[in-house]
Amino acid sequence: VEQLYQSSAIKQGELKRIYFLLKAFFSEKSNIIPPISKQEINDIFNQIKESEILTTYDYKLIGDLTSFFTIDQIKDLKHKVIITDLSKFKVKTKTFQIYVPSCQANIADILIDNQEFELAKPLIKNLKKISIENNDFFYFLLSDFLNYRLKFLKEKNIIRQKEILKEFDQWFKAAEIIYQGLPGFINFKNSFNNLKKNVYKKQFIIKNT
């Protein structure tokens, strides 16, 4: 893969993206594909950070490789994926409209995991606005899901956590009726079940201490 890419005259655009994706996601399954390096991730980050206006290609890289950026890099990229002019967003290409919410959701999810709750809030809010403008049920659902997940993980009081989980459970049951055939819904279900397990685990620890 490395030799093929280096010998190619085309080292920009989609070929370059495919090259990064192969290294990022298939290196563990192949002896001939090297892993993506920190330097390559840093180069991608710096290129995007220095760009005043992001292209569809930039959003694709952020969306595809979000989990490879450091938390500090994620924080720097956060403001770049927030859409302030929805009228301009609506006339962009379909690919652009697909990858922007993907970037927002991925970054918000990582910020929540790292307890950067206040930084995640504007992204979730913007994600919801975009999903409504685009009539995108998946990201509308995901924005609600992320918001509940944020509220739950931010709360330190176990009793209040249980109350939030109950609200979350009611929302989830309604969402399951409406959206259960939606691609990726099983991921919501698995994540929700993991949250419930964590609450029950905390309760057990508290009772037995």
Structure characterization notes:
This protein has 209 residues and is mainly alpha-helical. It has helices at 2-7, 13-26, 38-50, 56-65, 71-78, 86-90, 94-113, 117-133, 137-154, 158-179, 185-207. The chain is globular. Residues 7-11 and 202-209 have low confidence and may be disordered.
Précis, in short:
The chain has eleven helices and no strands. With 209 residues, the chain is mainly alpha-helical.
Can you tag this structure with a few keywords?
about 210 residues, mainly alpha, about 75% helix, about 0% strand, disordered C terminus
SSE order and pairing:
Blueprint: H1 2-7, H2 13-26, H3 38-50, H4 56-65, H5 71-78, H6 86-90, H7 94-113, H8 117-133, H9 137-154, H10 158-179, H11 185-207
Helix pairs in contact: 2-4, 3-4, 4-7, 5-7, 7-8, 7-9, 8-9, 9-10, 10-11
SSE class: mainly alpha
Name the overall outline: globular
Q: Would you list the SSEs in sequence order as H and E? A: HHHHHHHHHHH
Poorly predicted parts: 7-11, 202-209
Number of strands: 0
Averaged pLDDT, please? 84
What proportion strand?
Answer: under 5%
Distance between the termini: 55 Å
The biggest sheet amounts to:
none
Q: So how many helices?
A: 11
Please state the CA-atom Rg, rounded to the nearest Å: 19 Å
Helix content: over 70%
